[in-house]
Amino acid sequence: QVQLVESGGGLVQAGGSLRLSCAASGSISSIPSMGWYRQAPGKQRELVVAIAGDGSTNYADSVKGRFTISRDSAKRTVYLQMNSLKPEDTAVYYCNADIFRGWSLGNYWGQGTQVTVSS
Q: 53: pLDDT confidence band, cut at 50, 70 and 90?
């Protein structure tokens, strides 16, 4: 069993900051990549940013320069520092990870955390 548990969402005014965390737990051999997606009402889920085990990152253009992903491999945790937040960042943010359990690779999702940015 693998779980991804997110925390840190909430309500913030435009221009403010929030920090999201996502911790993986369970029977895990390794985690090649972790990342964050978001889904706004009426829109498709989209990639925000992903980070690989070598530290390489892939940011959506809309968040470059404002959001920063980091990873603590020992804690199996990924963080998303969100600065200069805009109302259009309002969405449910989901943690996502590719995880090896033995030789089996699976893709896992967290339950989501709401981020609301008021204007």
A: confident
